[in-house]
Amino acid sequence: MAQNTALSDDQVAAELRKMTAFIRQEALEKAREIHLKADEEFAIEKSKLVRQETSSIDSTYEKKFKQAAMSQQITRSTVANKMRLRVLGARQELLNELFEKAREEVRKGTQKTGGEGAYKGLILEGLYALGEGKVGVRAREKDYEVVKKAAAAAEKEYKDNLGKETKVVIDEKEPLPADSSGGIFIVGGNGKIEINNTFEERLKLCETDALPSIRTTLFGKNENRRFYD
What we know:
By secondary structure, the protein is α+β, with helices and mostly antiparallel strands. The chain contains 4 helices and 4 strands, in the order ααβαβββα. Helix 1 (9-109) packs across helix 4 and helix 2 packs across helix 3 (144-162). It is rod-shaped. The chain starts with 8 loop residues before the first helix and ends in a 10-residue tail after the last helix.
């Protein structure tokens, strides 16, 4: 028969130590695994957070950069427009001053009677435009004599060119203002048609027609303009 041999106290103590050492070793290895896994998960989460924050910072910076660029562009555009308006305003003031001086010179130059040739040309324009046998002419009282001579010369030239008679009559009931620049109004169509051939009106037409060339002469060619009349 087999005999059961009881372990001695030393043997029991040795077995307990072995078991304790094994359990301790297992616990240490498990703790190491848990620590490694925790470190790995921490690194992953940290990298994720860093990427998120970096992306957020980049997005915020890009947004602020775009806002700053847009603000700078608006500021440049505003300043450029203000400068352009100032330049245009200064140019217009110069043109207004130039035309006002021209009007003043016309007023000064027409205070005295004279210029039969000029009046003849103004009357002929009206005669050709109306094509009537009789037209009325309004002028300043002090110009009546020169206008009568100019009218006679215009009647003759009109007949020579067109082969028909016409009569120019000065309307002395309604003269042009004495302080006006002179010139004439030609009246036809039984008083229903008036042609303004005063010097003031001719100067206005000159201002309009000559304005583009005057601008080019004074300020140079506008490189941004594509079309011209």
